[in-house]
Amino acid sequence: MGLRKDFLWGGAVAANQVEGAWNVDGKGLSVADVATYKPKVDVKDYRKQVGVSSADIDAAIKATDTTDYPKRRGIDFYHRYPEDLALFNEMGFKTLRLSIAWTRIFPTGEETEPNQAGLAHYRELFAKMHDYQIEPIVTLSHYEMPLALATKYNGWADRHVIDLFVRFCQACFTAFKDDVKYWLTFNEIDSVTRHPFTSAGIIPDQTDNLLQTEYQAFHHQFVASALVTKACHEMIPGSQIGCMLTKLTDYPNSSDPRDVLASFNKNTMNYFPADVQVFGEYPALILNYFKEHDLDIEMTSEDLAILKANPVDFVSFSYYMSMVSSYDENNLTLTTGNTVVGGKNPHLPATEWGWTVDPVGLRISLLQLYDRYHKPLMIVENGMGAKDDLTADHHVHDDYRIKYFKAHFAEMIKAVDAGVDLLGYTSWAPIDLVSASTSQMSKRYGFIYVDEDDLGQGSLNRYKKDSFTWYQKVIATNGADLG
């Protein structure tokens, strides 16, 4: 069978990791602008990688230097996007997934009118994309909510933020209704309990019961997602709006039934945010989880009606690695992964950052998601971080990256041949950017090398890696020639 003829090949970035220009054209501070470079934090200590305190926030608000706050500088995509889009076009991109920074449109989140300079920037960006016939896939919330909403309301813990987010999204729909067909509500919405500040603006030291607050924030995001889905369908006829899940595929560590149960529980908790957005209701097992953990989530009958009436059109997800679970963590060798720490599968190799490489797991994930949801799917993040060496003549020989993608694409195509309805694939990331957790540049993902180091030193020049030409051929043959 192979991939559909209109398959959306491309790449994915986030505004807070590429744009820079943190104080340009009226932009306000976001939660991402608080993230500091953490070179000495153990990669397996994820809470320390993303943790933040009230004191950290106060220091960040006063800081004006970008050295310790790499997401404030990014790779200057804000000014260099014409050059980068030209390179993406040369690779043959059909689509680019990117996000709109909330604080460029509403700097504090509470303004009643949008910032026209922010709207103008994205309008010009989308126009250039359309010049190259690159379809935008826009994430409305990608770890970059206004910092002012975190400090004033403890982020998504407060129901009031729902209305503010809906206002932001409606402003985007009004401004870009002729530019964008595909929208995503919340990036990796399941991540609220793994990094509550980054994902939901929750400040842990201002929270009495963190677990209660996290699940209340979940509910507010679910309601907001449903309201935004309704608005998108009404304001942009023919539009498609999806949810986005971190697919944390988990296997039992052994055939011991207790390990199987531990893995089932892990996967159930991973699925639940997408379950709510696809099925429009909370799963019975999750409602029982609330009861067992004494979580009193405020939800009205009107909330539940809104969820039921406004399911998403498709399911998108990130997939980087898989892990294993056991009833007894002493049975596991722990390793890191995308926003998680878990059991390392002894049958799989790992990257320099400890993320296991599991191409078959991508096929399993596609089959699981399609079997569960019966909705079209998109893979909107997949890739490997590595330390690349730039040669004296400005080349990067990244055969390891080509090997990674080749194996994953082969399994992706097998899933499609098995009957999965897959709309597209966007690699994370097509160009080097500031990594999400430790804010490094040296953890490189792209087909394009950016001359910038962890401290922001470098020319910012862009150079094609060997994988650039390889991906160009894959797209040109619609996956028929993986090299």
Automatic annotation (TrEMBL):
Hydrolase listed as a keyword: yes
Gene3D superfamilies named in the record: Glycosidases (3.20.20.80)
GO terms, molecular function: beta-glucosidase activity
Domain of life: Bacteria
Any one GO BP annotation for this protein: carbohydrate catabolic process
GO CC annotation terms, alphabetical: cytosol
Keyword field contains Hydrolase: yes
UniProtKB keywords: Glycosidase, Hydrolase
SUPFAM superfamilies registered for this protein in UniProt: (Trans)glycosidases
UniProt family annotation: Belongs to the glycosyl hydrolase 1 family.
Protein name, UniProt field: Beta-glucosidase [Lactobacillus pentosus]
Biological source species: Lactiplantibacillus mudanjiangensis
Biological classification of the source: Bacteria, Bacillati, Bacillota, Bacilli, Lactobacillales
